[in-house]
Amino acid sequence: MDKISKFRNSYLWYSFKNDKFAIGSFLIFMLLLIIAVFAPLIAPYNPYSPDNIFILNAEMPPFWIDGGSKEFLLGTDDQGRDLLSTMIYGLRISIIIGIGAVLLQAILGIIIGLISGYVGGKIDSFFMRLADVQLSFSYLMVAIFLSAIFKAAFGVGTFGEVAVPFLIIVIGLAQWPQYARTVRASVLAEKEKEYVQAARVTGFGSVKIMWSHILPNCLSPIFVLSTIQVANAVMSEAALSFLGLGMPVTRPSLGSLINSGFEYIFSGSWWITAFPGIVLVILVLSVNMLGDWLRDTLNPKLYKG
Predict the structure, then answer these.
(1) Using one digit for the tens of pLDDT, what is the confidence trace for 5-24?
(2) b/e string for 140-174 if b means 16 or more Cβ within 10 A?
């Protein structure tokens, strides 16, 4: 039986195809992901191009409101850019930062969690105390500190060019302890089982046992945590951008769009903040619902039949 047939006969697939919320969340997330990936082909305009910035078109309302134009379906932002195009490109940046930050924190957390749980002793104590120290600092505090140093050392213009990797590193380094603790708990439960003892007797080294035997049996909680952390990373990026510590106005994300339009919301230009905010909520909600479904499916103790 090939892998596709095994997957179709698995409980995971059975649970998914019988859960309308999981299917709906997955379709919404995939739609947003496709829009983000193919942003240059889908967006009516390129918001990064100076040719599409025309200040006389600033704060133009959506086409169904008096003063709007079908040329700009959802209106324009404070710089006169097509809001729909800017949101599509902003969605792309938000997803890139979210997934990139989760990959970084997963790599760090998995490595530290495996070593900490398997070796134990002083190494375990050191890594867990390091995780405690990390968790005691808010990622906002770390971002403010690093952003201030970087802007002072290299200038605001240079910061704008490296804002994406900067946010990935800040969010990734700030939230790795969740992975480390999750993996460590799984390793502590797995390392005393018979298959691990058999691998030791066979002569396998510690690295081989950790990566080839223990880690595959710890993937379920990692997958669940990853879906939740993607949503958290997207929200973290939005929060940093809203505070002016994230993406610059020249390369907006959903968070920076919300921030740029917030000062205009009471003057009547509500769409600059409202539409990016709605897209952000839909993105985070769809990922969180997928995470909840995956958690319930992969944890047999939560299955009620």
Answers:
(1) 666 666 677 777 777 888 88
(2) eebbbeebeebeeeeeeeebbeebbebbbbbbbbb
pLDDT 10s digits, 179-192:
999 899 888 888 88
Angle subtended by helix axes 176-190 and 83-119, to nearest 10: 40
Phi/psi for 242 (5° steps) reads: -65, -35
Taking Cα atoms as reference points, which of 172, 285, 298, 297 lies closest to residue 231? 285
Positive or negative: CA dihedral 109, 115, 116, 122: negative
What is this structure's pTM? 0.84
Domains of the chain: 75-302 (1.10.3720.10)
Is residue 204 packed enough to be buried (19+ CB in 10 Å), middle (13-18) or exposed (0-12)?
middle
